[in-house]
Amino acid sequence: MQFVDLNLARRVELAEAHIGESLVVSMQQRMPESRAASEHIAGGIATFTGVDSPISQVIGAGLDGDVTETELDRLEEFFKMRGAPAILELSTFAAPSFVEMLKRRRYTIVEFSHVLLRKCERSEEFSAPPHEIAIREVRARAHAEEAKLYTDTVARGFAEFLAPTQDLLDVVEGFCYDPHGQCFLSSVNGRPAGGGAAALLGGIGTLGGASVLPEFRGRGVQSALIAARMKWLANQDCEWFATVTHPGSASHRNMERFGFRLAYARTKVIRTWA
Q1: What Cα–Cα distance (Å) separates residue 6 from each residue in 93, 151, 163?
Q2: What gap in Å lies between CA 145 and CA 152, rounded to an integer?
Q3: Where are the beta strands (DSSP E) in the chain?
Q4: In a domain, 84, yes or no
Q5: Do residue 72 and residue 160 come from a single domain?
Q6: Is CB count within 10 Å lower at the N or C end of the chain?
């Protein structure tokens, strides 16, 4: 795999950050009563779609070099005024001075994750799934019930790891309306089995938000979802495939089977308010 330097890492991080920002805009349009908001701060993008939302966080901060105390104050106020803790997905490429600043403010570690990359080969062919597995694109704008089915299926697939709060459901459904992406729903013998999203921005094609219902695991559904999303991205103007996984997880193993390799790590840190 090509050497991963700061410039490539910044492209990947900001692609995901901008996709989160587009979800905020989509939510503001579909749900004007929501408190969804975003702001460019400290070289990254802060997004908020609810206290329990998985995308209420900052991505990309510290990748443009040193961050001032004033910028960090602004970042923290963005969340504090909305009753949420400040959560940052911190890349290993973040400026060391910024990391030291976070230590002084008593940020604590929540979890680690791996960013995996793979070069997109336009001529690549992807094998069809087993005959009992079907994959289809979610057409939410034409059929709103498709978005609801997708949301229910993916949320139930995550249930053992993430409680299906309304904030989570809103985010999952929001991916169906992302102008930069496409959601995919899988079924086994006609029964909904799982789903996943893909999005493309600045040549970076992201694969995320995928889950499979417990009763359908181990049957190739996850692999079929990966292949379908990669094929869709390869037919766009995609240069790199990117995804984020927990180290050593089943998702990590599945992505490596498709040629993804570790590019760099992230550390999620948090500061709560008394």
Answers
A1: 6, 35, 35
A2: 11
A3: 37-41, 44-48, 57-59, 86-91, 108-119, 133-137, 181-188, 191-201, 204-212, 240-245, 261-271
A4: yes
A5: no
A6: C
The count of structural domains within the chain is 2
The tokens describing 216, both together, are: 């359908």
The pTM for the full model equals 0.94
90/145 same-domain check? no
| 111-154 confidence digits (pLDDT tens) | 999 999 999 987 888 888 989 999 999 997 767 889 999 999 99
Both tokens assigned to 137: 């694109």
Tokens at 12, concatenated: 């990947």
Interatomic CA distance for residues 223 and 226, integer angstroms: 5
Residue 69 belongs to domain spanning: 6-116+266-271
At 258, phi and psi to the nearest 5? -95, 10
Q: Is residue 124 included in any domain, yes or no?
A: no
Cα separation of 156 and 170, whole Å? 14
- More confident site: 128 or 44: 44
Distance, in Å, from the CA atom of 267 to the CA atom of 270, rounded to the nearest integer, reads: 10
